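QUALITY CONTROL LOG
STEP: pairwise intake check
CHECKER ROLE: data steward
CRITERIA: each record must contain a sequence immediately followed by its structure tokens, with no blank fields

ENTRY 1 OF 2
RESULT FIELD BELOW
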Amino acid sequence: MSIQESPVRSGHPAQLKSRGRLAAETILPPIVMGVLFIGFWYAISYGVLDERRRFLLRPPHQVLEVGFLDWENFSEILNGLVSSTKVAMIGLFISIMIGFFLATVMSQAKVVERAIFPFMVTLQAIPILAIVPLISFWWGTGQRSRVVVCIIISLFPIIVNTLFGLQSAERGMHDLFTLHRASRTTRLRKLMFPAALPAIFAGLRISAGLSVIGAIVGDFFFGLGDVGIGQLLRKYANNLWGEQLLAAVIMSSALGVTVFLIFGWIQNMAIGKWHDTAGGGA
């Protein structure tokens, strides 16, 4: 019994050391980078900017005090963030539905892909500012127009990544399905979609962040309805309220990072272990 237990006891400290080292390598770099960033921020606020121009970049402690610890200001930012989050999620959901449908149809026929794909590229290349009058003409200047902006901005990555994933299944597997006379639906459901999952989730993570950007950009152009974080950013900038402006920017960034991480977590739960094994990872 002692002979069998000794390797476990001798290996246990090594495992703890390895886990501690891994945790340190994961946690310490962003902490160090954050400290350096805050130090650089202070250096700009007090070393580069004089007192008259310090409104351009308020120091971190003032941003914390005015933008976050003052409940009146922070609650206003939170309400705007909630409104923008709703718009972003609605736009992202519609983009996913449209993107999956178009990518699936294009993957089934080359002629359909050649007919649709150039217009998707054109839509992606059009500046939002150029079509703002058209959007306001058709959908008004409220929340629906903000959703349309989210769809336009976040649709293309979903289509491209989903189409690429559906077309990435191995030719040998296609031949095997053909040998067994599998139907088009069976081939799509059991071969193409499972092979496309890593690319699909990559597109979802990109589009999730873009949908947040679209919601904020839409707030700048369409001001009717609930006040979003973009409208607050414009108000704070126009009034030179540097603390509230930076707090709103930080919260907007936090929203984008949160949405990105949520989809990354969903990806790990859905295909993480399978994808690592298929790719030869540990």
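ENTRY 2 OF 2
RESULT FIELD BELOW
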Amino acid sequence: MSLPSLRGLSLDRLASFLQIAEAGGLARAAPGNPIRQSQLSRQLKELESALEQPLFLRTGRGMDLTAAGSSLARVVRELGQGLTDVAAADQGPVRVALGGGDSVLQWLVLPRLPQLDAAMRGIELELGALGSDGVANALREHRIDLGLLRSTEAAGELKTVRLGVVSYAVFTAIGREKLPLAVPTTERGLDRAIASLGCAALRCETFPQVAQAVRSGAYAGVLPTFVRAHLPAAQFRMTTAPALDAIATPLLLAWRPRTLELRPQVKVLRRALELALRAALT
């Protein structure tokens, strides 16, 4: 395979381009450092000249990537990860990034790390809590290697495998009746179902916050049913409801096919995650 000969193309300029892209502008990439901003601007102009097309749209709010810029950012991230893997060969662990919702990482992934021990040899696992829309985008942009997401968020070039179904229920401390309801505010699709249960008295940003409210004994709370492993049945009651059953959603493990081709460590970890999490959701 022959590589294109592009005058002005260099790893330093590509790294500077990615720094600007991830910051959203020159000033944000080097705040309070006009000398570095000037250097970044020069390197960007040289890179755009080499590629013969603009990589950013300059707006009043900052700098947005063009279609070419988005494509280049994905290529540079993949290149950077590949070079990092080569440099780390036989010298240390390879970093693998896994993204998912905070509750999925906290209650499904972290308790099962001992089951992943063999698959994680030679790997430094990095967990990233991402919002509902963030996992698929982070995968496409090469910011994470593996992602846990709901089926409604998977699309395009990503490969997925179904792990099971995430369903919801109301958890209450045993012996406490007619408690006010704690609910999450950032979970899409739950609002209508929750409204059918009555008025919420406490709105929390995340499911772990709802769980803490339930543990206090002062609130009932809407939580994923997989939390039952962390709220003992002797102390907490789990009650299902038709409205909550209706919004149960498949949970998927997702990845870019090329990642598994280029990074065998990710392939091994992907399979181990699939087995461990599928067992947890059955």
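INTAKE CHECK: passed for both entries
DESCRIPTIVE NOTE, ENTRY 2: The longest strand covers residues 159-166.
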